[in-house]
């Protein structure tokens, strides 16, 4: 199932996503599942890569001058040797050296986790696939927020998550769960 060894991408797991600005969120266990994957990757000394969103929008909770909002959440702290790619757009590939880094490290597959599904996770997943990386998206290690469309129709975070996963499935990524990934690794 997984290309060996895959890089673990942890996208924007930052304190600013706890701000009420974003609205209601689903999958409150996402960080716990990310930590399970991080622990396994660290045990195996596989590549762990973070993106850190530093917004250029002053009203964003992820604004680059707001030191609290841009910080990684306490339970998901990068360790020495783990690469961090700062960015200010949704894709972890735009304006960063992520693609070059993956190629230089001969990493052909990625396992994507992080926040939020409809923003950085979806965009990075699409680009990862378009750039030719074997892409796995861990559905219980990501989270979405409520959204309202241009016609004023409200969608719950769960609805947003389901639609995003449906659109990414097969076309851009293989959708997996944390336990599937961990079980696959254990049997390789």
Automatic annotation (TrEMBL):
Segments forming domain Isochorismatase-like: 7-151
Top enzyme category: hydrolase
UniProt keywords, alphabetically: Hydrolase
Record SUPFAM superfamilies: Isochorismatase-like hydrolases
PANTHER family to which the protein is assigned, alphabetical: ISOCHORISMATASE HYDROLASE (PTHR43540:SF1), PEROXYUREIDOACRYLATE/UREIDOACRYLATE AMIDOHYDROLASE-RELATED (PTHR43540)
Family from the record: Belongs to the isochorismatase family.
Protein's organism: Cytobacillus spartinae
InterPro entries noted in UniProt: Isochorismatase-like_dom, Isochorismatase-like_hydrls, Isochorismatase-like_sf
GO MF annotations in UniProt: hydrolase activity
Protein name: Cysteine hydrolase family protein
EC number: 3.-.-.-
Pfam families (alphabetical): Isochorismatase
